[in-house]
Amino acid sequence: MQFKALLIDAYRQLSAAKLFWVTVGISALVVVAYGSIGFNAEGVTIGFGAYQIESNQLREGSPWARGLYIGIFSSILVNIWLAWIATVLALISTCSIFPEFVHSGSIELTISKPIGRLKLFFSKYLVSLLFVIMQVAIFCVGIFFCVGLRIGEWNPIIFAAIPIVATFFSYLFAICVLVGIVTRSGITALLITGVFWMLLWTIQTSEAVLNRFVIQQIVDIERFDEGIITATEELEKIKTVSSEDFRISKLEKRIESFQDDSEEASELLAELDMWHTPTSWVLTLSPKTAQTIGLLDRWLSDPDGFDIAAIMNGDMSEFEGEELEEFDPTTRGARERETMRRMRVDYENRPLFYVIGTSLLFEGFILGLASWYFCRKDF
Amino acid sequence: MAVIQLQDVEKVYRGKVHALRGVSIEVMDGEIFGLLGPNGAGKSTLVKILMTVIHASKVSGTMLGNPIGNRKTLENVGYLPEHHRFPYYLTGKQVLHHYGALCKVGRKERNSRSSSLLTRLGLAGWENKKVETYSKGMLQRLGIAQALMNNPTLLILDEPTDGVDPVGRREIRDLLAELREEGRAVFLNSHLLSELEMVCDRVAIMVKGRVTMQGTIQSLTVDSQRYEIKIAGEMPAWAKEHCSEVHGNMLVCKGNDPSIVQPILDRLRSENITIVSVNPVRENLEDLFMRAVDNTDSPGAIQ
After folding, report:
1. Which residue among A3, A275, B107, B204 is least enclosed by CB atoms within 10 Å?
2. Hey, where are the domains in chain A?
3. What is the 3-state secondary structure (H, E, C) of B8-57?
4. Nearest residue of B to residue A116, measured between CA atoms
């Protein structure tokens, strides 16, 4: 009964704010815009058939059409709309819930009731999250029908966006709650949460950049080592025929050059590791917002389909297809592609506990601090 | 039976600000108990400790038979905090439903009780209006209604008449008297002395975190009872010896027994001195309060 009372109160508080309805309205518009994209025998249609883009690959029933449509959801709507714009709007809407709750004159009325402070705190926290869950759920229902009607795929994994986005939002909201309870100011809570979010983004970006460099060096070292092996084998072959072959010195120089490059790359790798290892540890201990949102992409992607995320990252292999097979695997471009592939494998293979578990541990720590403060505080 | 029994309550903020210094009070079943004191005396702190809003540094005692801080006890206690703030987005009825639900009052009971309380507190017709449109007095009355939603045995009201007009104050006084008749105990925290004097059965005066006086107004003012005899003409020389005090043409005889003034009146008549008036005088709550405050270094300040 008490939880229900808090839930109804949270709903009334949020629905009293215009921003709540603005967010619902924009969400609806986004769903309508998404639903306006369709496929027919000629290609893609936009604006419920108002515009036609002809394409041989992106036509009705093709796996690429499915990839594009699902990709727009998982890579654009979730990554940009839900994980950024809607999250900012949700933070603005909810940042004042706890400061209002602990405001002098109102907190006395609530904590003097027969409900434990800890229960009160977590009930309030959960009902505040329900706001986001509700918004994402409405959004996902719309998307579910769009996907079903447009590409005939009634995919329940779309609803995975609800717990994923709610979990992602909860990392930030925990900070918002802690600051809100301590400072009793919604604006301060919002600003510090924003700064924290930027800090997380910096940590994640730094780790990703350093990880890319590390993998790049590993790939380079492997290529150099392969080059050494190939050149050494060739050299030995030549030496068995003639010890005075003019190619011997060239090959020796080449091997020497590979060795130098390999050593240089190893040194650079060791130096990068010095930076990457602590950054990885910091990332392990902090909430992984990008990787949490990335889970949806991971679960929804079709290996045979069209990968919009890869295209957004600059990998055009989906379009270039067969031509790539002709590329020399020792070229810089091939090494770049290998680096990107390994990076993707690395992130996709990171266990759920690493992505969500450690992030929730951080959130638990922050909520523990906030609830401890709330329980000990004299109001 | 005591509904509140507190012994030696202490509250020290950050190890240096002593808000309460060993407060002991007793509130009996079915009485209106008034706690008065100047601003900063520690009245609200004491009330907040009872309602678990503030943690005491040291507390022993019971409320409704359970140790102070027991959550279950709060199901039978109604509380109106000072300067309370209801969520602006709620209507009067929603406020009562919300706080009633937090007190574990069932839905049916909430429906019937909210309607009757809104009528009883003079808020009928306002139940579906947002509280942001209420006046200060209406909010205060809604606050009292909120405190009564769980049909409490004990009602703790912190400055209930704050911002209420004279008519509203009278209505609240009548309501408190009715509640007493219903057998509820009311713990009233106020600095409006005249209000308290009119309704309280017993009072405690708190100054600088200590209870300096406690009891019925009658028992607390018994020592101050006196007779003031006003005469015309010159004061006789013997007056100073036979009376407690002499001020101008006024003779003051301390005590509440009328027989103490009879010999003086006889003598004044025998000497043909005109007696203008004879008044039995007793301290009112304000005098009592001022006396309690004057006996300390500075009014109310906590150090």
Report:
1. B107
2. 2-376
3. EEEEEECCCEEEEEEEEEEEECCCEEEEECCCCCCHHHHHHHHCCCCCCC
4. B71
Check: complex ipTM more than 0.85: no
* B104 contacts on A by Cβ (under 8 Å): 1-2, 114
Q: Which CATH number fits domain B2-220: 2.60.300.12, 3.30.870.10, 3.40.50.2300, 3.40.50.300?
A: 3.40.50.300
The H or E element spanning position B188 is: strand B185-190
Query: From the CA of B215, how many Å to the nearest CA of chain A?
Result: 28
**Alpha carbon of B107: minimum distance to chain A alpha carbons (Å):** 9
Contact call for B51 and A4, based on CB within 8 A: no
Per-residue confidence in pLDDT tens, chain A, 379 aa: 888 898 898 888 888 888 888 888 999 999 999 999 999 888 899 999 899 988 888 888 888 888 888 888 888 888 888 888 888 988 998 899 999 999 988 999 999 999 999 999 999 999 889 878 888 999 999 999 999 999 888 989 889 989 999 999 999 999 999 999 999 999 999 999 999 999 999 999 999 999 999 999 999 999 889 889 999 998 898 888 888 888 888 889 989 999 999 999 999 999 999 999 999 999 999 999 989 988 887 787 665 555 555 555 555 555 454 444 444 556 777 888 888 889 888 888 888 899 999 999 999 999 999 999 999 999 9
Amino acid at A141: V
Contact A5 B75 (CB under 8 A): no
Token pair for A243 = 């010890």
CB contact under 8 A, B55 and A12: no
Q: Which chain A residue has its CA at the smallest distance from B95's CA?
A: A9
Listed in sequence order, the residues at least 6 apart from A22 whose beta carbon sits closer than 8 Å to its beta carbon are A89
Residues on B contacting A at a C-beta cutoff of 8 Å: 13, 48, 51-55, 71-75, 77, 79, 81, 83-90, 94, 97-99, 101-104, 106, 146
Question: Which residue in A2, A13, A104 is closest to B101 by CB distance?
Answer: A2
Q: Cα distance from B66 to chain A (closest Cα, Å)?
A: 13
Q: Is B42 in contact with B23 (CB distance < 8 Å)?
A: yes
Q: In what order do the strands lie in the sheet with B185-190?
A: B77-80, B154-158, B185-190, B32-36, B202-207, B210-215
Domain locations along chain B: 2-220, 226-279
CB within 8 Å: A112 and B86: no
Specify which residues B60 forms β-bridges with: B7
